[in-house]
Amino acid sequence: MASKAQGSAQDLKNFWDRKSRTFPRYSPGEDNYEARVLALARDNGAVFKGARILDVGCGTGLYTIRLAKEGREVVAVDLSPEMLGILREDAEAQGLSNLLVINSDWLSFEPSGHFEVVFCSMCPAMSRPGALDKLLGLRGSQVVYLGWNGLLRSYVSEELYEHYKVTPKSFQGAQATREHLDARGLKYAALPIEGQWRVTYSKAELLDSAVTNLDDYGAVPDLDHLNSYLEKFRQPDGQYLEVTDYKIQMILWQNK
Questions:
Q1: Which pLDDT score, from 0 to 100, does residue 19 have?
Q2: CATH no. for 4-153+168-198+247-254
Q3: Among candidate residues 133, 70, 84, 123, the one with its CA nearest the CA of residue 248
Q4: C-alpha angle with apex 236: 231 to 238, nearest 5 degrees?
Q5: Pairing between strand 240-254 and 142-154?
Q6: pTM above 0.85?
Q7: What's the angle, vertex CA 202, arms to CA 201 and CA 203, rounded to 5?
């Protein structure tokens, strides 16, 4: 079964609107995943402070709000209005006034002015023809790009995909990006980010997430089976734990 989220822009929008119900959102602090990712980028030459920044595929604003706290201005672009609604809510709670939020798919987005930094984290649109070329067309920008590097394994989804005969999509965005940069003769730094996400949900939230993921592949879940299966992930405190192994690569380069 092919993923709907790899189909039309409308399919992609519908999928991420649904995912917004259980998607992580901005969390303060300097000891979480997003803080460590931005620290790695800074340690390898990214300069966010005082910069005009474009956040491509910003989602709920996990990085956007952090970038806005450092940058002069952040333009945040995403296809999903539901994701952007969460971003606006969290940005308002942080008292940010230097954030411009735009609801658009990447290929239709018309950038205005120069961006010192372009940030793009695991944006599905980058797999579409012409998407990377558009990113490279933002001349003079420093690019901080995060792409999947061969592994995204959810312990909840793995057995469900097998049960419903789903073949998960490939997670090789980093490799394709490196090949694209190599073909253009652009120098870049490629840095591994590997680990495990551990996220707790209510039963209803985890059920919603599982149904959305299966529906993306056209699978029709049996709710009785799902409700029984998800009990495997129930914790002593009554929450449900999803563990995901990941391999990501941060790729940094300067557009010519």
A1: 97
A2: 3.40.50.150
A3: 123
A4: 60
A5: antiparallel
A6: yes
A7: 115
